């Protein structure tokens, strides 16, 4: 397994994870996080707008998903294009080397209502990014919204399974399977 | 049109709406809100856990939706049961007398990232409440999740139209129409 070399924003996220787990989100300050990462407060705010944001990366996921949908084969239907986006997330974000980090992050978010709120809003952003990218492929508006919601649900199901398990399952495979099951389920609504 | 007589939590919400619109969410305190409503801080915290919560009612919407799904005819399929929940929301929450309040509330939330976060989390709660109620009717897990997501999308589409318009459209009719269109769209994903 390749060693994961964190950059500054990832070092801040790792430090925040440690501190949130040790002391709780409420009892951790931005200065604490920057200090634990061996960085200054100014560097923190170059990367993140506030303390809540530190576990939500650099905002490139929206672009990653939208880019993968734009790059999907011209013949791909809406859900196949969404599957390409989930593949990209598996290749870039949910790699085996990041599983432990993601599992710890998930536990910390589950313990903090404030982080849950930020995560809920981020989820809406990801869904909107997928719907927008589908629309730009010419998918009709409502179909794009439904396909994006199914993609977001598949993401959630795959994410929960992938980050929970020690089985080594591949995120993209889990997400594609979930998406297929959701498509079948939507036909029986 | 029947006159709407606000109770204490509604008076607090109305006062908060006025103040958030006048000064912004950030520049308004709980004491300001309680004072404007002619009530004390203690009364505020009997109704709401924090300032963010004041525009999100008394938490009865989850129960209203779940109750309507439970009470749907035994023969109703998942989406028909969801439509019953949307009907109930239209009867209880999105009445003509409340349209102006809801429209102002929507504008204030759109102006505040913090309120948007709380709203995003509340949206997840409503979706989960519908999915749970469908499961208790014996709907298989994934089908319940998809039906609840389609219901949440129909809600959003109807809500945006209903609160935007001066046309006097009925919320339940808008929501049922949106749900039908989303069902058709899901077949073309």
What would you say this structure looks like, in words?
Two copies of one chain form a homodimer. Chain A has helices spanning 8-23, 30-36, 41-47, 61-70, 78-92, 99-110, 113-136, 141-164, 171-187. Chain A has nine helices and no strands. In chain A, helix 1 (8-23) crosses helix 2 (30-36). Helices cover 70% and strands 0% of the residues of chain A. With 189 residues, chain A is mainly alpha-helical. The model of chain A has no long low-confidence stretch (mean pLDDT 93). The first copy, chain A, starts with 7 loop residues before the first helix and ends with a helix. Chain A binds chain B through residues 77-79, 113, 116-118, 120-121, 123-124, 140, 142-143, 145-147, 149-150, 153, 181-183, 185-189, and chain B through 77-79, 113, 116-118, 120-121, 123-124, 140, 142-143, 145-147, 149-150, 153, 181-183, 185-189.
Question: What key phrases describe this protein's structure?
Answer:
mainly alpha; homodimer; 189 residues; elongated
Q: Biggest chain pair contact, residues each?
A: A-B, 28 and 28 residues
| Helix proportion of chain A | 55-70%
Low-confidence stretches of chain A: none
What's the order of the H and E elements of chain A? Answer: HHHHHHHHH
Strand content of chain A: under 5%
How confident overall, as mean pLDDT of chain A?
93
Radius of gyration of chain A from the CA trace? 17 Å
Oligomer category: homodimer
What is the count of helical runs of chain A?
A: 9
Class computed from helices, strands and strand pairing of chain A = mainly alpha
Shape of chain A: elongated
- How far is the N terminus from the C terminus of chain A? 42 Å
Which sheet architecture does the biggest sheet of chain A show?
Answer: none
């Amino acid at each position: 397994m390749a060693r994961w070399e964190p950059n500054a924003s990832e070092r801040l996220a790792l430090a925040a994870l440690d501190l949130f787990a040790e002391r709780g989100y409420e009892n951790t300050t931005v200065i604490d996080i920057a200090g634990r990462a061996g960085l200054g407060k100014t560097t923190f705010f170059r990367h993140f707008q506030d303390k809540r944001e530190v576990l939500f990366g650099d905002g490139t996921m929206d672009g990653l998903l939208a880019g993968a949908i734009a790059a999907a084969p011209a013949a791909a239907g809406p859900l196949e294009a969404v599957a390409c986006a989930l593949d990209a997330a598996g290749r870039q974000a949910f790699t085996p080397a990041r599983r432990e980090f993601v599992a710890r992050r998930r536990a910390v978010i589950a313990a903090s209502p404030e982080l849950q709120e930020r995560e809920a809003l981020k989820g809406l952003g990801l869904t909107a990014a997928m719907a927008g990218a589908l629309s730009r492929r010419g998918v009709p508006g409502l179909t794009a919204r439904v396909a994006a919601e199914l993609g977001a649900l598949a993401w959630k199901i795959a994410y929960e399974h992938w980050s929970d398990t020690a089985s080594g399952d591949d995120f993209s495979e889990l997400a594609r399977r979930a998406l297929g099951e959701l498509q079948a389920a939507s036909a029986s609504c």
